[in-house]
Amino acid sequence: MTSWPLPRREVRRDWRAELLVVSGLLLFVLAVYAVVVVAGGWLLGRVSLPGLPLAVIATTVVALAFDRVSGQLRSFAGTVLRSTQVDPFDVLSRFSGAVTGQYAVEDVPERMAQVLADGTGARWAEVWIAAGEGMVLAARWPAAEPDLVRTAGPSGRLQDPRDAEEEGRHWREVRHASNLLGVLVLQERPGVRLTAVEQRLFAGLAAQAGLALRSAVLRSQLEQRADDLATRVDELRGSRQRLVDAQDDERRRIERDIHDGAQQHLVALAVNLRLAQALADTSPERSRAVLAQQEGAAREAVDTLIRLTRGIYPATLSDRGLVAALEAVAETSPVPVDVAGAGVGRLPPRVEAAAYFCCSEALQNAAKHAQATRVRLELSRGADGSLVVCVEDDGRGFDLASAASGRGFVNMRERLAALDGSLDVSSGPAGTRIHLRVPVPAGG
């Protein structure tokens, strides 16, 4: 932890401290003269009368060391007599330096805590900053105090320091333009209460800290925003990779189905047509029979292509809209499905496609896993024009923690996320409820 050189403390004008300092200085002067003049004269053989040069040397030593010895004696007196209060003007001056740009933004809370503890003579001091609806500990001084351990609350944030009701604990709110930015906290030393001057000094420090804590709060918010954006980037990168993988899988499936299905029918159709053409001159009747057979082969090839494209984008969805396409899905579902969507109307193709595939996935899950006997699918428009869909079944439910990572729910979330939509799922013994919302662009 970084520390800063602080000006030497000035002790309160306590007569006991002054007496201790004066006595110490007197002993220091006598000791210097005893060592330099008396002992030096004895060594030089001038025991009867101290020489003038030795007296000059002793006086010079006393003059050079006087300030240093005086400061050490005052510090010692302050420690012994608990006279640790510095000059309030000196503290305010140093505190102003901490909050007016002399230090990096990340160092300001620690600097503030140090000046606060040093200026009030407290056992320790803390600086808390507001973060959302809670508080986080930004700095404390000294950092090695054993009773500074904090426990996290239910939300994971540290407890609010204003809730502590411990003896000798003081706190002051720091505000800027009526906004709460943080809290300054200090703990008195055992048996040493804050004086009226120290309490006014504490209030003055809290009043000056607003602008500095505002910068610290903004920095904390920017760091949190950066972390959120980094997490979002990672999620988008993973989502993009999964979409690419899904598209590759779908492309390979289509290629396989075309090769094994429609391509075989079309190749056979072309071979038979060439055969009919070759027989046209030599065996007209047989040529007509081959051509008649190709009508069924062509129809079978068309049916194969229709089955192939049905899972990509149903014709009913593009021709008649979302409600009609979902009604068609409900007719083929092994579980009875009630579809309600009056007043929804036509929507942009991307919105209809996302809602269609999400609803199809939900109906498929209800039929395959939930053992439901009835499903209700309701579509409506929200107050902001967004599409709202609710799928409810009376099945046995499932474990949300394990199902959330399943391919079906992942695909649903990614389809909706691409449109800034949302997906909420609740499940229990009485059934499952899937609620999704898809924003509709203006004019859509």
Concise structural overview:
By secondary structure, the chain is of the alpha+beta class. It has helices at residues 15-43, 52-81, 88-99, 108-120, 196-208, 210-282, 284-310, 315-320, 322-332, 349-368, 400-403, 407-417; strands spanning 124-131, 134-141, 169-176, 179-187, 337-340, 375-381, 387-393, 422-428, 431-438. It folds into 4 domains: 15-81, no CATH class; 88-208, Beta-Lactamase (2-Layer Sandwich), CATH 3.30.450.40; 222-310, no CATH class; 317-438, Heat Shock Protein 90, CATH 3.30.565.10.
Structure commentary:
It is a single chain. With 444 residues, the chain is of the alpha+beta class. It has four domains: 15-81, no CATH class; 88-208, GAF domain (Beta-Lactamase, 2-Layer Sandwich); 222-310, no CATH class; 317-438, Heat Shock Protein 90, CATH 3.30.565.10. Helices cover 56% and strands 15% of the residues. The chain has helices spanning 15-43, 52-81, 88-99, 108-120, 196-208, 210-282, 284-310, 315-320, 322-332, 349-368, 400-403, 407-417, and strands spanning 124-131, 134-141, 169-176, 179-187, 337-340, 375-381, 387-393, 422-428, 431-438. Helix 1 (15-43) packs antiparallel against helix 2 (52-81). It is elongated and about 150 Å long. It starts with 14 loop residues before the first helix and ends in a 6-residue tail after the last strand.
